[in-house]
Amino acid sequence: MDNSLTLLGLLGVAPSYGYDLKHSYDRYFGLKKPLAFGQVYATLARMMRDGFLVETGTEAGGGPDRRRYEITPAGRERIAAWMFTPDVPSESLQSNLFAKTVVALLTDEDAGHLLDLQRAQHMQQMRALTRAKDGGDLMHVLLYDHALFHIEADLRWIDLTSARLEAMKAQLK
Predict the structure, then answer these.
(1) CA distance linking residue 9 with residue 115, whole number of Å
(2) Does the pLDDT at position 93 exceed 70?
């Protein structure tokens, strides 16, 4: 996820202070990894430099003055371009699990055991995500569903690869 564009998108809702913007980001997107304040302010400075937002005022606070930011028309165009450009599914064929499986086969290690361990880890993660969905709001349920569907695809690959280990080993030798 592109944090800078996500922050810019949040500014598209209404002008905001960096402190409030960070908390909005964390509320919607920072479930497992909230943004650091320093990252927010560095990102705001870059976006201001690039003409995507402007500072519209300051307010005295307990510490440094609070700066209020507003998205510019160029920022709105940038957000629209980002939102309506479809994401390309990962084209990476360099899966770490695939590499481990091939290396296990090449070194005469137990690739089946490796895949069993990975399957168990995936199942544990699926159970945790399924529990997290219970009682969650719709936004987080959809986020958990996205992760679960990816784990299910990995599990299908693990099962298929497990069934083909002998043929794969023969092809590698």
Answers:
(1) 40
(2) no
